[in-house]
Design goal:
heterodimer; A: alpha/beta; Rossmann fold; six-stranded mixed beta sheet; four-stranded antiparallel beta sheet; 9 helices; globular; B: 14 helices; binds adenosine-5'-triphosphate; binds magnesium ion
């Protein structure tokens, strides 16, 4: 598999010339990006570069001012966020979004039922559905959440909430997965669990992950995209990225500064 | 990931919910039976309480479970009451079960239609829209007096015997038993609905609609559907009240009734079906007793009751009882 984002026919996700301004500020400045089956891409860039905004535009939480998004060759620029998820385009959130009073078990079961098109049913308890229960606990076990499966989400540690966020997106069985800093807020020892979960994802899934932890990024990604001030300034292999002078100037320097502040 | 522990967890929690349903129904039936024996001359009041319970249960579905703010919920109760009443008084549809069915359908339709308006707003604007809806409905019922009797109320409702056997007697016994039966059925059905995947989805929407969309589930449509279900429940309450009292007044469709229903729900505890039942029983019972002595005192008591609940039992009477029970059990074990 070549590192270049060529071959448009092969692309699962195709983002063309996306633009978004907040006030006068171009937060997404003519961004084009393709993801093919099996891609493992890291999207990096300094704080405020527009990474989360890019994910919001692609998944429909925000409307772009220009440009288009295509999934499997179909133009989904006008589709609602839930429609996009149904089509297989799933994201996770940088700041955890969970149902505070629901348990991890309920979260994952609901996501599974949603994926199976059964979330609208007004009768039947998922606890009485052995297949759903087995799959739910399989996913929870993968993220070490089995022990707290019955506690409300607002009573579990933040690191565990982050893991639950990953469990949720896994249950949705995506074709394209956009992970917004999945390891942020997770204690060092538990990032292993996230990596293990990501390794278990089906091989033909296309994954784009945002993260600031370079070691994690380099272990995970076969292609790195760098965003600075809303524009893509680099798209290539992990080996090349640390040598690129523009990247060093725009990002890795300030990244080192961030680290020393944190 | 062996199947054994999961399956045993499944059956255990399954049995527990079935047992929970049984005790819940038994508790409601027992309380109804006790009230029947203790207050045989107050059956009309008890039946009215059950009709209002259906309204408050319905409100709990959209507000307590799904997070929709509304001060216009009596619209759905009134829709059921007027539909059942008009069909009985003007078209001779006097079978009580048929009248209940008409009330449920009218309530569901009113729920679905008004939700299209109410769900356009969020927070305060949602409250304002709901008040606008109930005001318009009230005014429409007032203006269409040829059908509704206007401010005089709709009279001439003469329900035929229940199952063709039991007349609606002067003491209100038949009406009371029908009301209790209806309440038990609705209560069980709603317990199933709030546990279902759909019920979970509604709770999810209340807690974070953005997350629900990011799971691929529709927020708007789910809420419209919940509104239709809630409308059917409130409509049943309205139809029950039309059958039991044989009149339908404009107050069944009023802002005041809507606001009172919300107070009852908060007193009992939102987001729990028992909260709706307890809140209504306490509120209407006190209202009846105290206002018979002195209407001024009643308003004072509502005020004190509300302040007391909000300060000392923010999760309502049922919520307070639950945490007390949890404390007692925690100390024992
Ligand atoms: N809703 C909004 N309204 C106005 N400005 C916004 C909005 N969302 C983001 N911005 C601005 O857009 C820029 C990009 O924000 P974004 O969250 O996309 O950055 P990011 O690359 O994800 O940063 P981080 O690494 O800190 O998560 C920032 O300057 C931010 O202040
Ligand atoms: Mg971000």
């Amino acid at each position: 598999m070549g590192p270049c984002a060529g071959a448009p026919v092969m692309s699962l996700l195709e983002v063309r010339n996306l633009r978004k301004n907040f006030g006068g500020l171009a937060v997404t400045d003519d961004v084009s990006l393709n993801l093919a089956k099996g891609d493992r891409v890291a999207l990096i860039g300094p704080n405020g570069a527009g990474k989360t905004t890019f994910v919001n535009l692609v998944t429909g939480q925000l409307k772009p001012h220009a440009g288009s998004v295509h999934l499997d060759g179909e133009d989904i620029t006008a589709a609602s966020p839930s429609r996009r998820v149904q089509a297989g385009l799933v994201r996770s959130f940088q700041v955890t979004r969970l149902f505070s009073e629901m348990t991890p078990e309920e979260h994952v079961a609901l996501a599974l039922l949603q994926k199976q098109g059964r979330s609208g049913r007004v009768f039947g308890d998922y606890r009485g559905m052995p297949a759903v229960m087995a799959e739910t606990h399989e996913i929870l076990a993968l993220l070490n959440l089995d022990g707290i499966a019955q506690q409300p989400a607002n009573s579990i540690a933040y690191g565990q909430q982050r893991l639950l966020e990953i469990a949720l997106v896994m249950a949705l069985r995506p074709k394209v997965l956009l992970l917004d800093e999945p390891a942020a807020g997770v204690p060092g020892s538990d990032t292993m669990l996230i990596e293990r979960a990501l390794e278990r994802l089906p091989g033909d899934l296309a994954v784009l992950m945002i993260d600031h932890d370079m070691d994690f990024v380099f272990r995970f990604a076969r292609r790195v995209v760098v965003l600075a001030a809303g524009a893509i300034i680099f798209d290539g292999t992990p080996a090349e990225v640390s040598r690129d002078p523009r990247v060093r100037e725009a990002y890795l320097g300030s990244y080192a500064d961030d680290r020393s502040q944190a | 990931m062996s199947d054994m522990p999961v399956n045993s967890v499944t059956t255990r929690s399954w049995q527990r919910t079935a047992l929970g349903d049984f005790w819940a129904v038994a508790a409601v039936a027992l309380v109804a039976g006790a009230l029947f024996l203790l207050f045989p001359t107050n059956l009309a009041l008890l039946t009215r309480i059950i009709a209002v319970m259906l309204l408050v249960l319905s409100l709990d579905l959209v507000t307590g479970f799904s997070g929709v703010a509304t001060l216009g919920h009596a619209t759905l109760f009134g829709a059921g009451a007027y539909a059942a009443g008009i069909f009985a008084a003007r078209f001779g549809v006097t079978d009580p079960l048929l009248m209940l069915a008409i009330g449920a359908v009218a309530g569901a339709l009113a729920g679905a239609v008004t939700s299209l308006v109410i769900l356009r707003g969020h927070g305060l604007s949602q409250l304002v829209l709901s008040i606008a809806v109930v005001s318009l409905a009230h005014e429409a019922a007032n203006k269409l007096s040829a059908w509704t009797g206007g401010s005089d109320g709709l009279s001439g409702i003469a329900p035929s015997p229940l199952f063709g056997l039991f007349r609606f007697d002067l003491f209100g016994r038949t009406a009371f038993f029908m009301a209790v039966g209806l309440l038990l059925v609705v209560f069980v059905v709603l317990r199933i609905v709030v546990r279902s995947p759909f019920g979970m989805l509604c709770r999810g929407i209340k807690q974070d609609p953005v997350r629900v969309r990011a799971m691929g589930a529709p927020v708007y449509f789910t809420l419209v559907k919940m509104y239709a279900i809630a409308g059917a429940v409130a409509g049943l309450g309205g139809a029950l009240s039309a059958i039991a009292t044989k009149v339908v007044g404009l107050d069944s469709l009023s802002f005041t009734t809507s606001a009172e229903a919300l107070v009852m729900l908060v007193v009992g505890g939102t987001g729990k079906l028992f909260g709706a039942l307890v809140g209504t029983l306490v509120f209407v019972w006190f209202e009846d007793r105290v206002s018979a002595i002195n209407p001024f005192h009643w308003l004072t008591i509502i005020g004190v009751l509300l302040i007391g609940v909000v300060l000392f039992a923010p999760k309502g009477l049922v919520g307070a009882a639950e945490s007390l029970w949890a404390r007692v059990r925690g100390r024992r074990s």
